RNA 2-O ribose methyltransferase substrate binding domain-containing protein
Amino acid sequence: MTNNEIKRIQSLERGKSRREYGQFLIEGKRLVQAALEWRKGLDLIYFSDLFRRENTAWLQSTESSDVSYENIPAKQLEKISFTKSPSGIVAVCNLPEQQKPDLNQNRWLYLDRIADPGNMGTILRSAAWFDLNHVALSVDCVDPFNPKVVRAGMGAHFGLSIHSNLDLGRFSKTHTLIGGNHRGADAASVEIPERCVLVLGSEAHGLSSDSLEMINQKVAIEKLGFGESLNVGSAAAILMYLFTNK
């Protein structure tokens, strides 16, 4: 592995380089396994000698003619790793092509100005769990393919259709917009129409004023105990559960 190759892979931690090369990074056996199972975008897998020795059977079972495998020294693997404790395997994936959003889909999740990578990844992971496979992001959201988002998403990216920089107004004529808001009605008692969008705002700022103006129904999670608020990832999971079970 040349120094130029190392620098190029390291650059994929930055959004500008991800867009320039059309690629993003994943790290860890479970994420690589998810990418292999979905057969989406895997381009090149790097692994260390130690990883090879401990995972020989797994590597042999996952060999694919569509993916290149490269055994590299541990020091080089550490240079391209983006975690404090490298797992021994890093992969380069191709970014999915941005498709036109299919507004004929009944249920959507819309994220409004979610800037924290960990929260974004957690929400995407929950969306996959609750089968909300169509996700739209506002202009001020963190890049969904930021390494920290991908890591927190735990493979959700490979099964979701994610649309960045999408205006909420695109849904206003086709779907009912249901927004998470502390002044809303109890989410457990609200009737959920068949064609709707669950709109979630950031933990720090909530829904933007523009989004609030378009919301048809505000919903909140009833507090049974004490505490100031729920983490946005926790609130999102609860609302998605209620949203998809009606």
